[in-house]
Automatic annotation (TrEMBL), chain A:
Entry keyword set: Cell membrane, Membrane, Transmembrane, Transmembrane helix
PANTHER family on file: GUANOSINE ABC TRANSPORTER PERMEASE PROTEIN NUPQ, SUGAR ABC TRANSPORTER INTEGRAL MEMBRANE PROTEIN-RELATED
Compartmental location: Cell membrane
CDD domains on file: TM_PBP1_transp_TpRbsC_like
Molecular function GO labels: transmembrane transporter activity
GO cellular component, one term: plasma membrane
Organism, as annotated: Roseivivax isoporae LMG 25204
Protein known as: Sugar ABC transporter permease
UniProt membrane topology term: Multi-pass membrane protein
Top-level lineage group: Bacteria
Membrane-crossing residue ranges in chain numbering: 12-30, 65-84, 91-113, 158-175, 254-270
TrEMBL record, chain B:
Record InterPro entries: ABC_transp_permease
Protein name: Sugar ABC transporter permease
Database matches in Pfam families: BPD_transp_2 (PF02653)
Gene Ontology molecular function: transmembrane transporter activity
Membrane topology recorded in Swiss-Prot or TrEMBL: Multi-pass membrane protein
Compartmental location: Cell membrane
Chain ranges passing through the membrane: 57-75, 87-104, 110-128, 140-160, 204-221, 241-264, 276-295, 302-323, 329-352
GO CC entries: plasma membrane
Keywords, sorted A to Z: Cell membrane, Membrane, Transmembrane, Transmembrane helix
Organism from which the protein derives: Roseivivax isoporae LMG 25204
Domain of life the protein comes from: Bacteria
């Protein structure tokens, strides 16, 4: 593998890791507050559809982004209603949201565009432009560093940079602000937060809302950044991979970045090479597909460091009387 | 704490949830510019008014009975087995191996062998998540989701690289030998005079599903193991105090659950396709969740809910054929059913409990006067 190919694979890793990272951080906020969310997939999917649909209709990718976020927030609201207000089973609610998204996105796409459950291909202002960072052109002549800067770091859409900036921001919010402390506390010991006179319900709704916002960004990037338009089931299990990355990262922001880049790399390699030949030993493409899930099971099994979820995760909070 | 009579809990709550789901579905149909009444009439006509329609409805229902039972058995031990999809995939593989590589003289013996293969492979696929939950505390929901994806990749690899006959394009095994073909409803019930169930995939596996319902009922409410499963589901600490080993029960429950999900492979691979194809489960593993929730984890409830979803599936296919409503409408209805009967259960239950509590208070006051 020469240097140019390596750069291309890494470049594609960054692009593929972006939706994973946004969804993973979304799950991080929700699960740190004690609300399990296996509906990341569904929220990304509706966001992908609505951002593509509105971008196609108006020609503005920004309006599309807003629509995607709004749609994702609606599903977040349903999840909050079911799991916070009505103290239902959070896992079942997540499953329902995934199916709701899978069904509604195709149903509405068929009704609006009549193209077999997809949106028209986006052109021009309907997609995110790639941003060329300053000096990328001038520096590209410099050996090694030049191409890395010009190809790998520069030339992505704005949401990619937003995603990567979200990592330190998430860390700062969770570990350096009062809101973050309370949010983590409500995921570990909601009764303590309640005793301190802070609203458990309010905090959890806030976390679920942030989760919806970030899933909206993830879905929007998928349909208007990574690809040009919505197709049926386009998230293709990314929400679950993000969930796997979250466990892999043991619910920590910087580790989430590492996990998402790793899983993005696996996707990029699987996309570029069908079967990998390692001198006689061939690794079939399906192994690359399954690797994120296998790694997660290994981590969950606790053989390589134990993954311990927030203590109050999945438990609806009932005030003592 | 029992504020509601048993009948209200078992029938009224799911019925109201179902009505809410139906109402919202009707609104969805209205929103995309179709007539809900007309759509419902088409669905009934296509799924229930002809024997062929019933043949399809019961075929789908057979799948959903197996996956619904799988989810509900696990629910009794308070385990959420979301991995029915993967277990059914592996069940199909078990069926294919049994049918392709063992010689069978007659379909009855083949059915027996294939059922064993399907149950064994399905159970094995549930074994690792079960063991990890029981021994290492790894959350079974996450591990079974991961195993669904691993199963899909695994089957994809097997079909594309190993089991596909040379020269064939689509990733599927060759057709199973003729001796293993199961009799369809048409073979069983159609006569010269009345050609019933023509071309429908419903087959003898349906009766196997009915047997499974009875067996699960016996297991849960008439055996010592079933008692232990329910005890663990109600309170782990109490079960432990009573000398029940949680590890043993979790593993056994998940093995049974996986075996039930795996049995679905008999219906899809042996009964319908007569070969193993990619993605034969078509989401039935997930529909099992909706079926178990609606059926209140009781085999008879699961049976009824499976018939309902079979009807929705077949009716949905008819709708897609005759109107501009795509098949995904069924996915929406399925989501609404899961949402209302599962996650938003308390939304229906809380007001109802209040109504019953008020009635009881009034009833108590009257004789005192």
């Amino acid at each position: 593998m020469d240097f140019a190919t390596l750069l291309q694979v890494l470049d594609s890793t960054v692009r593929l890791a972006t939706p994973l990272l946004l969804a993973c951080l979304a799950g991080l906020f929700s699960e740190r507050s004690g609300i399990f969310d296996i509906g990341l997939e569904g929220k990304m999917l509706v966001a992908a559809f609505f951002s593509a649909a509105i971008a196609a209709a108006t020609g503005s990718v920004w309006l599309g982004l807003l629509a995607g976020i709004a749609a994702s927030l609606v599903l977040s609201g349903i999840h909050g209603l079911a799991s916070i207000t009505f103290r239902g089973n959070q896992l079942i609610s997540g499953v329902a949201i995934n199916f709701l998204a899978a069904g509604l996105s195709v149903l509405i796409a068929q009704d609006w565009f009549g193209q077999g459950g997809r949106t028209p291909s986006l052109v021009g202002g309907g997609r995110w432009d790639n941003i060329t960072l300053p000096l990328a052109e001038t520096l590209s002549g410099v050996p090694v560093i030049g191409p890395i800067y010009a190809e790998l770091i520069s030339g992505h859409s704005i949401l990619v940079y937003v995603a990567f900036l979200m990592v330190p921001l998430t860390w700062w919010i969770l570990f350096r602000t009062r809101f973050g402390l309370r949010l983590r506390a409500v995921g570990e010991a909601p009764e303590a937060v309640d005793t301190a006179g802070v609203s458990v319900v309010g905090l959890r709704y806030a976390a679920v809302g942030i989760c919806g916002l970030l899933c909206g960004l993830a879905g929007s990037y998928l349909a208007t950044g990574l690809q040009a338009g919505f197709v049926k089931d386009m998230t293709a299990g990314r929400g679950y991979i993000a969930l796997a990355a979250l466990i892999f990262a043991k619910w920590r922001p910087w580790h989430a970045l590492g996990a998402c880049l790793l899983f993005g790399l696996l996707q990029a390699v699987a996309l570029r090479y069908q079967n990998i030949d390692l001198g006689g030993l061939t690794i079939p493409v399906q192994v690359m597909d399954a690797l994120p899930y296998i790694l997660t099971v290994v981590i969950l099994a606790g053989f390589v460091g134990k993954a311990i979820p927030p203590r109050a995760g999945g438990e609806p909070y009932v005030k003592e009387r | 704490m029992d504020r509601m009579p048993a009948w209200a809990d078992a029938i009224l709550v799911p019925l109201i949830s179902l009505l809410l789901a139906a109402l919202l579905s009707a609104l969805v149909i209205l929103a995309i510019g179709e007539n809900p009444v007309e759509a419902f009439r088409l669905m009934v006509d296509g799924a229930l008014m002809r024997s062929t329609g019933w043949g399809y409805t019961l075929y789908y229902a057979t799948n959903f009975i197996f996956t619904g039972l799988a989810v509900s058995v696990a629910f009794h031990a308070r385990l959420f087995n979301i991995g029915g999809e993967g277990q059914a995939t592996l069940g199909g593989l078990g069926v294919a191996l049994v049918c392709l590589y063992l010689p069978w003289p007659h379909w009855t013996l083949a059915l027996l062998g294939a059922s064993l293969g399907a149950a064994l492979f399905g159970a094995l696929w549930a074994l690792i998540p079960a063991w990890l939950q029981a021994k290492r505390g790894s959350h079974i929901v996450i591990t079974t989701i991961m195993f669904n994806f691993i199963a899909a990749a695994f089957l994809n690899y097997l079909l594309v690289n190993l089991m596909k006959p040379a020269g064939q394009m689509d990733p599927a095994t060759e057709i199973f030998p003729a001796a293993t073909h199961l009799p369809t409803f048409q073979d069983m019930f159609a006569t010269e005079a009345s050609p019933l169930f023509r071309g429908a995939p419903g087959n003898v596996t349906f009766f196997l599903a009915l047997l499974a319902c009875v067996a699960v009922w016996l297991l849960i409410w008439r055996t010592r193991l079933g008692y232990e499963i329910r005890a663990l589901g109600h309170s782990e600490s109490a079960a432990r105090y009573a000398g029940i080993s949680p590890v043993r029960i979790i593993v056994i429950t998940m093995l049974i659950s996986g075996a039930l999900a795996g049995l679905m492979g008999v219906n899809t691979a042996m009964g319908e396709a007569e070969r193993l194809v990619l993605n034969a489960t078509e989401g039935a593993g997930f529909i099992g969740i909706a079926v178990a929730l609606m059926g209140r984890n009781h085999p008879f409830g699961v049976f009824l809910a499976a018939i309902l979803f079979g009807f929705l599936y077949q009716g949905g296919a008819e709708l897609a054929l005759w109107t501009s409503i795509p098949r995904e409408l069924i996915v929406v209805i399925q989501a609404l059913v899961i949402l209302f009967t599962g996650a938003l259960d308390n939304m229906v239950r809380m007001p109802l409990e209040r109504v019953f509590a008020a009635r009881r208070r009034r009833a108590r006051r009257t004789p005192a006067e």
